[in-house]
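[step 3/7] fold_predict: job queued, chain A
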Amino acid sequence: MTRSTLLDRLPAVSPPVMRALAIAAVVAQAGIAVTGSVVRVTGSGLGCPTWPECFPGSLVPTPHPEVEPLTQWIEFGNRMLTGVVVLVAGACLLAALATRPRRARLTRLALVQPLGVIAQAVIGGGVVLLGLVWWSVSVHLLVSMILVWLAMQLVAAASDGAGPPRRLVPGPVRGLAATSTAVLAAVLVAGSFVTAAGPHAGDAQTPRLQLSVETVAQVHSELLVGYLGLLVGLGFALRAVAAPARVLRRYAVLVAVVLAQGLLGGIQYALGVPEVLVSLHVLGAALVTVAAAALWASLTERTALPAPTPARAPALADRGA
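[step 4/7] structure written:
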């Protein structure tokens, strides 16, 4: 009872403010994935070789004969950005709790953000303690993409009403969209394997995935072609069912971002995987995830519940006057 009363005392948050905070969560989750890639391509993954401390007995970088100061600060700076993500995630949760009327789905999606950041901090610590073993880095990246997806669902929920969901396209079309999402997940997994087999391990001594870059890159590209094929079919399906204009716009954005990401990946591979293009490719992966999540969210709408009808005052004759 006391807990409910305290929550009710929070100042009411308007939908535009909730939406702005949710967008900030998307930017924060995508941004920390990109800065993580910068740590990797600069070979700074073990700039702070322990966790949660940077060095044994010190939470911050300290002079060390075997670790360059710049390497330390790049890794430590990425850790500090986690604090920013925590603040944004916490603000999203408080804002969701202060939304009137409070909506269960919005609150659940907002709660995922701080919980996800905590999970990522633990995973990141495990990555360091495991010496940047390739599979742990892949998990770290893929969880970031999941949190980006869920943050986009939070953006959509911030603009939704409290009414029941209404599907804007038929079930088979939603099924095709869901299938394309599953293939996108496979594309992202394969992309993380390309990185795991490539030259940017985060530290020169880190063991790599024992597969040739050419092999995993081929699998990655074939999955991307399959994903594009599904998107083409989805486009025809959306047109056939006369999907709303907002859905078609988001579909067009997704196709454009996927094509740009595919072009960037081809250039990256042809140039021998230069460092800057690796980070840009991670940014592109986050943008593809954002666009795909936005399209998925647009397939359903939730309108506001009708305001309750005020009780009619009894007529004078009904009062027995």
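[step 5/7] annotate
The two ends are 43 Å apart (CA to CA).
The longest strand covers residues 165-167.
exit 0
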